[in-house]
Amino acid sequence: MYPNTFTNGPVSYLLRKQKALMCLTILLITCNCLFAQIKPLATDTIVPGQGARKQQLKEIKETKKKLLTDSVNEPPKSPLIDTTIQNKYGDLLNDDPKYNLKYPIWKPAVEVVGINAFTWSLDRFILNQDFSHIGPTTWKYNIQQGWEWDSDRFGINFIGHPYTGSMYFNAARSQGYNYVQSIPFAIGGSLMWEYFGENTRPSYNDVINTPLNGAFLGEIFYRLSSNILDDRTTGGERVFREIAAGLVDPVRGLNRLLQGKSFRKTTKEVYQKEPLNITMFTGVHKINVDNKTVFGKGPTEMLYNLQLDYGNPFEERYRKPFDFFRLRTEFSFGSGRKLLDNLTGYGILIGDNTHWGKLSMLYGAFQYDDYWDNKTFELGALGFGGGVFTKYPISKAINVYTNAHFALVPLAGYSTRFGPDTSQVRDYTYNNGMEAKVESTINFGKYASASLVYYYFLLHTTVGAAGINHMSILKPRITVQIIKNVNLGFEHFIYYDDRYLKGLPGIHSVRTEQKIFVSLFLEDPQRKGRYN
Q1: Which residue has the higher pLDDT, 425 or 115?
Q2: Are 433 and 447 part of one and the same domain?
Q3: CA–CA distance, 206 with 161 (Å, rounded to integer)
Q4: Same structural domain, 219 and 308
Q5: Residue 61 falls within a domain, yes or no?
Q6: C-alpha to C-alpha distances, 457 to 102, 204, 282, 295, 349, nearest whole angstrom
Q7: What positions does the domain DUF3943 occupy (predicted)?
Q8: Of 243, 273, 303, which residue is a domain's last?
Q9: How many domains does the chain contain in total?
């Protein structure tokens, strides 16, 4: 929890905002260096005395491209690949335990304490926030008075706290602990902060959102930083990789310095890597303010959208948490103080693949994260459920991709019937419920695509005006190629809101937005085709 007022005026506000957006800015800075490196075939090892390391790495990459790339968008399996330790692209299925030791439990535990101490010091001595004035009296009060639902701003609760949770998580993840083993450290860090890091009572929403969405972001940051790192490189390239990986995952970057990994030289790949595609959009965003208006009056903003697609959902293999994920984030600039328009994503927890004729399928359990904060509404939702991904080739160049999801939502924040405001107090309710999503895309080679996305949320208010909320988003989109990997696109956004509050008449609204954008598709050399 954080206080409801800013004691240092606009300076304090900007610093607080910076906390919430830090992880997203990092992604923008480093997105161009995230491609998986081409490594672990039997020929992936650098041999001392047989040429410069840089030249050997170049030859390894070229050899792998020739072995694994063909003309039908699916690389064949090379006989050089050991499928017990490598995926179909020749990358490691797990971090090499010889080079990624599991450190004693006290080390990540101490680091979690250090993260909280650093955060508190910033709040106390730089921002001088009221809530940071703590001591034995406030600790006793928190323990005796028990739990509450806090009144923090929407962005703090649904972006700021999960980012802090990702740091707790990566204190363990970057010291040899796997995804599941790292979650207790995020829980412990959250509990410690709730009781001892501030003078306000511990809150239910924080102890749910901080560790669970923190694990979601933390594992994504860990995976992306692994795709950047390459301990076989030297010189300026090595320095750049270490800095970029540290920006994406600061806790891991610090631990690499302390562990000496930032300076070690290996002769082979030692990190799990998966193919990664990056799509960037930039353009104009028309926001219509009139109810039930398609093209009405309203502000026009600039937009920037980043989408990361990690892993191939149609590769037949054993699935671990986040071997396959998608993360989208969009920024809007030009009117108002809201910059981060939305952040959405999903990551696989466990799953399997199958084939029915030409139809390829992945099914499994997923974690979902939804964050929408714009002039129309605020929605933050944490979800767990099942998903199915399919690919059907109509011809060699035309493919249809579809994914469908159903999930339970244990915690959500949703703006009231009056809509979001700019005050510094909570302007949303706490909810639970369910969500469903369907996304379908048909790709005409690389020349054009048409897609339809539909999200639906059924939310029951637990804290706030009692009632049931039905919220849905419909997004048709088309894109046409301009030049290689550059497309022109149009998206129509329709937001439906139906509220049935106890003792009040129903509220029904429809609002729309339009986006015209240019997109740049950066395809991983190993991952030919848009798999989802």
Answers
A1: 115
A2: yes
A3: 7
A4: no
A5: no
A6: 40, 22, 28, 25, 21
A7: 146-251
A8: 273
A9: 2
Helices (H), 87-147: 106-121, 136-145
417: CB partners within 8 A, 6+ apart: 465, 499, 501, 507
Residue whose C-alpha is closest to residue 164's, from 188, 142, 145: 188
Token pair for residue 254? 């610090």
> In this model, does residue 79 exceed pLDDT 60?
yes
Q: In this structure, which amino acid lies at residue 20? A: A
Q: What is the DSSP string of 13-73?
A: HHHHHHHHHHHHHHHHHHGGG-PPP---STT----TTSS-HHHHHHHHHHHHHHHH--SSS
Looking at the structure, tell me whether residues 504 and 408 fall in a common domain: yes
Residue 56 within any structural domain of the chain: no
More confident site: 66 or 100:
100
Do 249 and 343 sit in the same domain of this protein? Answer: no
Query: Do residues 159 and 305 share a domain?
Result: no
H or E element at residue 405: strand 398-415
Q: What are 489's strand-pairing partners?
A: 479, 517
**Residue at 5 is within a domain:** no
Domain span at residue 379? Answer: 274-522
Same domain, 289 and 233: no
Q: Distance between terminal CA atoms of the chain?
A: 37
What's this model's pTM, rounded to 2 decimal places? Answer: 0.89
- The position carrying tokens 């800095």 is 243
Q: What is the C-alpha to C-alpha distance for residues 118 and 59, in angstroms, rounded to an integer? A: 45
Tens of pLDDT, residues 293-347: 556 667 889 999 999 999 999 999 989 999 999 999 999 987 667 789 999 999 9
Q: Residue 374 in 3-state DSSP?
A: coil
Any domain includes 69: no
**List of residues 6+ apart from 289 with CB closer than 8 A:** 296, 297, 298, 299, 375, 511
Query: DSSP secondary structure string, 271-326?
Result: S----EEEEEEEEEEEE--STT-SS-S--EEEEEEEEEEES-TTS-S---TTSSEE
Q: Which two tokens stand for residue 158?
A: 């649904």
CA dihedral 205, 208, 209, 214 (to 10 degrees): 150
Residue 78 to residues 64, 82, 314, Cα–Cα distance (Å): 9, 9, 17
Residue 442: C-alpha distances to residues 60, 317, 388 (Å): 35, 25, 17
Separation CA 226–CA 92 (nearest Å): 11
Q: Are residues 250 and 207 in the same domain?
A: yes
Are the beta carbons of 472 and 440 closer than 8 angstroms? no
Statement to judge: residues 128 and 216 lie in one domain = yes
